[in-house]
Amino acid sequence: MDAIDRRILTALQRDGRMSITELAAEVGLSPTPCARRLARLERDGLIQGYGARVDQAQLGLPVSVFVWVELETQTREAIDAFERAVRAFDRVMECHLMTGSRDILMRVVAADLSDFDRFLEERLMRVPGIRSLRSSFALRTMVRRHVLPVS
User: Fold this and answer.
1) Strand, helix or coil at 148?
2) CA-wise closest residue to 68 among 131, 114, 129
3) Cα–Cα distance between 118 and 12 in angstroms, integer?
């Protein structure tokens, strides 16, 4: 990956809807070589897809809850089973396997506290293999970035 590839990635993270002509002009290439580079970045998996960033609050899901999960066992099978279960929950926006005393950290979105309570009782607490759950509600988001540093 060279400096032009980095400029392509930076530009597309800022505006994934720009045309190949606009992208080429921004990175200093003609459209055809720019399109070839873009196709290579997609093929190599550096660009994994395109999508719209939707405002969580305006969609009616203003609450973000961080949930720490401790599993009963930390075997590969237990972790895989938990992962398969939570992949089915569309309210789970992120799920990370962590180091330390707690095994998993998730970010869950909800309409309100009652909505989150329903999610806990009807979905998450029914996943086998969980030893304990701890939740923290985000009061406000201070920093949220969608653009990775490409240096």
Assistant:
1) coil
2) 131
3) 38
Phi-psi category of residue 119: left, alpha or beta, with phi > 0 → left and psi -120 to 50 → alpha:
alpha
**Domains located in the chain, CATH noted:** 3-43 (1.10.10.10), 63-137 (3.30.70.920)
**Other beta carbons less than 10 A from residue 99's beta carbon:** 6
151 compared with 44, residue with greater pLDDT? 44
pTM of the model: 0.86
Q: What is the arithmetic mean of pLDDT over 49-78? A: 95
Long-range contacts of 90-93 (CB under 8 A, 24+ apart): 91/61, 91/119, 91/123, 93/64
Question: At residue 101, does pLDDT exceed 90?
Answer: no
Separation of alpha carbons 138 and 1, rounded Å? 37
What string of DSSP letters covers 18-48? --HHHHHHHHT--HHHHHHHHHHHHHTTSS-
